[in-house]
Each structure stands twice: as C-alpha cells, then as structure tokens.
Design a protein that fits this description.
The protein is of the alpha/beta class. The chain has one domain: TIM Barrel. 46% of the residues lie in helices and 9% in strands. α3 packs across α4. The model has no long low-confidence stretch (mean pLDDT 80).
Length: 213
C-alpha cells in the first residue's frame, strides 16, 4: 500500500506583517495548493466572533484545507491578571472547537525575557492556567449546540460525524438536475388573441378615420 504524501501547510504568523484577514490567508493557502493552515494569533477584526468561526470553518472545508488554530502567549504580565489569562485561553479553546481545530496551539510568552518573575515563576503560573482549563482541553470537540445555532442563523444545518449518512441524503436532491418541459398551444389560451384583436381593431379604426374601405 502506497504511503500518502506528507501534508504541507504554513503558519500564518509568518505573514503577519501583511495584516491579512482570515479569508485572505485561507485563499493564499489554497492558491499555493497547500493542504493545511495554522491560524495563529489571528489579526482578523472578527477573530473572536462566534459567527466568524463558522464562516472560517466552512471556507476551509470548501477549499479542502485542514485547519488548526491557536493564540499568542498565555502568561500574564502580573499575578493579578492570572484569571484574565485563564478566561482568554478558554475562549481560544472554544474558538478552536467551533472552527474544527483538533487542538489549540499557544506559547508561554514571546521570549524568555518576557516571562514574569523568571522561568520558575512562569512555569508555576503556566501549570495553574493549564490546570484551570483542563476540563476544556480534555474534551476539545465541536460544540454541537453552538454549531447548530450558527448554522441556523444563516439558514443552514450542522451535521456531526455520526450524522454523515444523513448529510448525503440531504445533498442528493441538490445535485440532481431537473428539467421541466411544457407545451402551450396558442389557440388554447385567449391571452394570445388579445394583442391580435387589439391590433386589428386599431387598424380598422384608422382606415375608417382616413376614409378607406
């Protein structure tokens, strides 16, 4: 059995200077015939909008791209911001699940010098943050209710893997061409005679007005 080729993709952070939105980044990947894309620390104005997550997931599916996502540094600048860091990471987990990413990639900090209180303090805070979000990380799967809600808002439907059989049945009528032919005999409809009668009547009036037989 032949081995499948190694998937090729790129980390969008490498194009961060272009300040492209998510759609532009996905189109770039598809244009270069890549297999995957990692949306890291997105600069899209709607990056944290749940409605946008569904749009990105659908676009990646349509372009045939494997999508992964994540954020930037998870460590706070000071101890008082620890809860905010936990809330931010939870939001990234929710985003990843809705977009179909199998995991969330983040970094501790931009560089070692940015670690608050040094490496040891950074490690301690990282453990606290990860333990706080463990329930979400242990179950990084699509939120069915949220996906159905987002799909319904745009007039669509959401299907899980266990419902794949139903999806095929729903798509079948849309892929079948239907040709409808109809035949109308002119003398079976009086509407066709009205213009003719109007024209003949107008001609008769003109002939009489001009004294013609």
């Amino acid at each position: 059995m032949a081995e499948l080729p190694l998937p090729l993709g790129y980390n969008t952070y490498c194009l961060r200077a272009l300040r492209w939105n998510d759609a532009q980044l996905l189109e770039f990947a598809a244009a270069h015939k890549l297999d995957a894309i990692f949306l890291q620390d997105s600069l899209d104005p709607r990056a944290m909008d749940p409605g946008h997550w569904n749009e990105v997931r659908e676009m990646a599916r349509r372009l045939g791209l494997h999508l992964e996502t994540g954020g930037g540094g998870i460590l706070p600048k000071r101890a008082g911001d620890l809860e905010q860091s936990i809330a931010t990471l939870r939001r990234h987990i929710e985003r990843a699940a809705a977009m179909g990413s199998p995991f969330v990639r983040c970094v501790l900090a931009a560089d070692r010098a940015a670690l608050p209180g040094g490496v040891e303090q950074g490690m301690e805070w990282a453990v606290k943050i990860l333990r706080a979000v463990r329930p979400e990380l242990a179950s990084l799967e699509a939120n069915g209710d949220l996906l159905r809600q987002m799909a319904a808002s745009s007039g669509g439907e959401s299907f899980g893997e266990e419902e794949a059989y139903a999806l095929a049945a729903r798509l079948e009528p849309l892929s079948m061409e239907k040709v409808v032919e109809s035949t109308t005999i002119l003398w079976q409809s009086y509407w066709w005679f009205l213009p003719i009668i109007a024209f003949l009547t107008a001609e008769w009036i003109c002939r009489k007005w001009m004294g013609m037989p």
